[in-house]
Amino acid sequence: MRNLKRYIWISTIAVIIAATAIMAFCVFFDQAVLVRKSTIYRLKTDEKVVALTFDDGPSPLWTPQVLDELKKAGIKATFFMIGKHVEQYPEIARRVAREGHDIENHGYDHKVMIYYKTDELKKEIDETEKVIKDVTGRTTKYFRPPKAWLNDTEKQKVKDMGYGVVLWSLNSKDWVTFHDKQITSFIARHIKPGDIILFHDSGGVFSTEGGDRSQTVKTIPRLVKRLEEKGYKFVTVSELLSGKF
Questions:
Q1: Is 17 exposed, middle or buried (0-12, 13-18, 19+ CB in 10 A)?
Q2: Rounded CA gap, 79 and 25, in Å?
Q3: Confidence (pTM)
């Protein structure tokens, strides 16, 4: 009995340590670094241009607030939208399009796609493309996989479909709900010309909808001011990759 209790105690401690390590890994390490091969994650340029991107929307609560701040700042951004959310909140998606921001493909319901069959992957992207086209009139040309995960075969399939696979070079980790001052300070310290910066306009740690994006909203004016003082210009992903800035 004593040995059993000792085993249970040691096992419990081991599970706690492992869970803590996994959480720390997720919070402080950007897993996208592991799958950047054969993707677009920044532009090599000497021009001080950067692209803000927002994933997981549209959200009826947070996307309008993000749009308000972008409008005040006088900049355009890129929204990688979930097809299901576009269906649920079409007017929000239309507002994004109406205000001149890029709209791109983030899959239909935010499932990790690393083990998808190629026909399943195609269906996921095609459904999202159709929804976005029907609602906003926009045709998407870039795809960002949920959680960044795609294997090499899937990356090639996406390219064969005519899409560029776009990740990011700087991760705001705003889903962790870091303070806006912390997010701004981190990005300002690491910013380089041609960076693509990841934010979210919906979702939380365990969901793709809702969450608390208040710090994201607060970060926008602070970050724009900080980077513009450094001489940076904000562009959309399509502008960045086309060199039209």
A1: exposed
A2: 26
A3: 0.88
Where are the chain's structural domains? 1-32, 36-242
19-49: pLDDT as tens digits: 433 444 445 557 788 999 999 999 999 999 9
Beta strands in the chain (DSSP E): 49-55, 78-81, 102-105, 142-143, 164-165, 170-171, 196-200, 233-235
Which tens digits make up the pLDDT trace of 205-225?
A: 777 787 899 999 999 999 999
CB 67 within 8 Å of CB 99: yes
Phi and psi at residue 117, in whole multiples of 5°?
-75, 155
CA distance 125 to 83: 9
pLDDT above 50: residue 18:
no
Helix (H, G, I), strand (E, B) or coil at 160: helix
Q: Kindly report, residue by residue over 180-211, the tens digit of the pLDDT.
A: 999 999 999 999 999 999 999 998 777 778 78
The amino acid sitting at 30 is: D
* Packed helices 180-190 and 214-229: angle between N→C axes, nearest 10 degrees: 40
Q: Is 36-242 a domain of CATH 2.60.120.280?
A: no
Contacts of 75 (CB under 8 A, 6+ apart): 52, 224, 234
Q: Among all residues, which ones are annotated catalytic?
A: 55, 200
Amino acid occupying residue 55: D
> What is d(CA 116, CA 75) in angstroms, rounded to the nearest whole number?
36
d(CA 196, CA 44): 11
